[in-house]
Design a protein that fits this description.
The protein has 2 domains: 157 residues, no CATH class; 96 residues, no CATH class. The chain is built from 8 helices and 16 strands. The strands form 3 sheets. Strands 1, 2, 3, 4, 5, 8, 9, 10, 11 and 16 form a 10-stranded antiparallel beta sheet that branches. Strands 13-12-14-15 form a 4-stranded antiparallel beta sheet, with helices on one face. A hairpin with a 4-residue loop joins β8 and β9.
């Protein structure tokens, strides 16, 4: 089969103060830790490699590498014997020697990070294995907020970019009864003038997170003007947006950016293009598309 599936998710990463060079230093410092991150139960993930997308590219260019997900087994916990229907005894366990550096159920997923836009794109599917948005966001958030990293760079804000189509649909809900927004400090030198104004104001009054709620007059719908629409997009890219209301049939409807993460799926011909070049081409297109949408 020559047609291969590629699924890509997108995460926005923000540090303050920031520059493309600082983002590169951040990732290189994190990579040096080589520390597995627990993402759920016995599932862990590790940033296993980091290098330039193109060997001869100038700084600050994009970086890439692999994220490995695996199962970490507690060797001290009881083992079950399927033959006896009971826990394995010590004599049987003495014969089992699994090196500490070997982990089962391994899966590899590539990533590409663009320091100019501070977007990280990750493979959500590879070789029959999936890396979901919730796991990806939790991994990156935990990875970039290790104690030693926060001590050097401060808190790193991590937001999984939501589906732009779903957010557009939510903004068109016929009767918008309530809109809630949470905004973490965006970057002042990117995207819209409104975003720069929000960032500067939050810095001026020493605010890390801004929460805002809008409630419609009973029986009416919140009217979206250009400022409120822009604020919703800022919150979607740097926090969270929740909209509650009614559809055209007056049935309750609710939307949250956290429930609709951005994922892009394509198919490519493996005889014409390898998986990494397909990933690069797709992320370059998505990077520009997301940047334009949030302006």
């Amino acid at each position: 089969m020559t047609e291969k599936k590629l699924v890509v998710g997108a995460i926005n990463i923000t540090i303050q103060p920031h520059s493309p060079d600082m983002y590169l230093k951040l990732f290189r410092d994190v990579y040096k830790l080589k520390s597995p991150i627990k993402i759920s139960g016995d599932q862990y993930a590790l940033l296993s490699s980091l290098h330039k997308v193109k060997s001869g590219q100038k700084e600050p260019g994009p970086i890439t590498g692999d994220i490995y997900r695996f199962t970490s087994i507690d060797s001290d916990s009881p083992w079950f014997n399927l033959d006896t229907g009971d826990f394995a005894d010590d004599s049987l366990m003495d014969d089992i020697k699994i090196p500490d550096n070997l982990k089962p159920n391994g899966a590899r997923f590539s990533y590409i990070f663009y320091p100019e836009e501070h977007f990280l794109f990750y493979e959500g599917y590879y070789n029959g294995k999936s890396f979901g948005p919730q796991s990806a966001e939790k991994f990156i958030k935990s990875l970039l907020n290790r104690e030693s990293i926060v001590a050097k760079y401060g808190k790193v804000d991590v937001t999984h970019i939501p589906s732009t189509d779903k957010l557009n649909d939510a903004l068109k809900i016929p009767t918008k009864e309530r809109i809630d927004m949470v905004i973490t400090r965006p970057n002042a030198d990117t995207f819209s003038k409104t975003q720069r104004r929000v960032m500067k104001r939050m810095n001026a009054i020493n605010v890390e997170t801004h929460e805002q709620s809008f409630k419609a007059i009973d029986g009416q719908s919140i009217k979206l003007d250009s400022d409120l629409t822009t604020m919703a997009k800022i919150a979607a890219n740097n926090g969270m947006v929740s909209i509650k209301g009614k559809d055209i049939n007056s049935k309750p409807i609710e939307y949250s950016t956290t429930s609709h993460p951005f994922l892009s799926k394509i198919y490519y011909n493996s005889k014409v293009q390898d998986s990494f070049s397909a990933l690069v081409d797709l992320t370059l297109s998505l990077k520009d598309e997301i940047t334009k949408w949030f302006k």
